[in-house]
């Protein structure tokens, strides 16, 4: 009986600590100088958080990590992020800083593979970069710092490295911490207890059909929700979806990574609408979910190409009204 009472109290503390949902968007770094207001088009969906996503660059098969070089966009540079941070804070938007790694010719950093010597070099380089971002986050009153994004092989290779890195970061940065685990790896992360949020990039394969119904999407979520709740209770931490969203195209509720670079796939607004609506109704509103960040949002609308009618961004699409409804709550 005592054990059950303790478990109930712990879970109650998680749920009560969440308060207002994190209604966020992942901001796409502007390619060129951006002088507009960061909050201008966010008011249409009532967002209260943004995630800045600067990219760290790597060459294939090399442990070196580069930042603020020619390959970075204008919005990746700290001096330019500061401008966006000030604008956001003046508009009462809170901020998560979420540095990504991009590997040349590959993109995804989840499958990094090195020999022992190069793994050591990579960890040294990665720690240096994250400590720089920790200092930047502290100096600029950033609310949440994400210490890595979908580093599947690296977290499995050496979880102790990440635990020690978190300790070093906390000596510099006093805000909240999370890590963005890929949907297929979040249960294997062993350092959730050292963070404030369990961060998950929520690209779960819900339905492999071309255009599933809302009922089919709801059914697809049923096998994932209990696992998410168990993990939240086990670590006594709320879950934040560091990325979530669906392309406005066919097959966007399935293995999204397989169609990510297919720009010719037919546009399907209904898929995007249904995907978001079911996510909000069945997942987002749950007590152990602190909120999330939509993937992805362009503050500089000049960066949105006409071909993006079947892309992830909800801007200028019917799904905006669904997001607005839920973010208003």
Task: Give descriptors for this structure.
8-stranded parallel β-barrel, two-stranded parallel sheet, TIM Barrel, 329 residues, alpha/beta, disordered N terminus
Describe this structure in words.
- With 329 residues, the protein is α/β, with parallel strands linked by helices.
- It has a single domain, classed as Glycosidases (TIM Barrel, Alpha-Beta Barrel).
- 37% of the residues lie in helices and 16% in strands.
- The protein has ten helices and ten strands.
- The chain has an eight-stranded parallel β-barrel. It has a two-stranded parallel ribbon with strand order 3-5.
- α3 runs parallel beside α5, α6 crosses α9 and α9 (269-284) runs parallel beside α10 (319-327).
- The chain is globular, with a radius of gyration of 19 Å.
- The two termini are 37 Å apart.
- The model is unreliable at 1-17 (pLDDT under 50).
Write the layout of secondary structure elements.
Blueprint: H1 2-18, E1 22-27, E2 49-52, E3 55-58, H2 78-90, E4 94-97, E5 100-103, H3 116-139, E6 144-149, H4 152-157, H5 159-172, E7 176-182, E8 198-201, H6 214-221, H7 225-235, E9 239-244, H8 256-259, H9 269-284, E10 289-297, H10 319-327
Parallel strand pairs: 1-2, 1-10, 2-4, 3-5, 4-6, 6-7, 7-8, 8-9, 9-10
Helix pairs in contact: 3-5, 6-9, 9-10
Helical content stands at: 25-40%
The run of helices and strands is: HEEEHEEHEHHEEHHEHHEH
The poorly predicted ranges are: 1-17
How many distinct folded domains? 1
Number of helices: 10
Please identify the top-level CATH class: Alpha Beta
Radius of gyration: 19 Å
CATH architecture: Alpha-Beta Barrel
Strand arrangement within the widest β-sheet reads 1-2-4-6-7-8-9-10
General form: globular
Q: Got a strand count?
A: 10
Main beta-sheet annotation? 8 strands, parallel, barrel
CATH superfamily: Glycosidases
What is the average of the pLDDT values?
93
Strand content: 15-25%
Q: In terms of structural class, how would the helical and strand content be classed? A: alpha/beta
State the separation between the terminal residues, measured CA to CA.
37 Å
CATH-assigned fold name: TIM Barrel
